[in-house]
Amino acid sequence: xxxxxxxxxxxxxxxxxxxxxxxxxxxxxxxxxxxxxxxxxxxxxxxxxxxxxxxxxxxxxxxxxxxxxxxxxxxxxxxxxxxxxxxxxxxxxxxxxxxxxxxxxxxxxxxxxx
Length: 114
What we know:
Helix content: 10-25%
Radius of gyration: 15 Å
Shape: elongated
């Protein structure tokens, strides 16, 4: 892991503060989605949402992907989607590489594919 030290602009600081204010308590860690076998998490200073779903016995073709609602520092919300992956793998999506938007919420979708 590399560490960089950057000067934060007022814009980036505003986005980070906004992301901190709108995230529910504990959202910067991980949360188990009730009864789904999936764990949601927020990483990368509140810019990336991820979901990990365990393998479901008898459902080898079950896929999932993360659905992240991002919020721009001005309050605009947009949904983005991670790639479809099989159980035992993580799907992630990043709202903004430059800090202008952060994760508002994390959810997931499932489908059966073969």
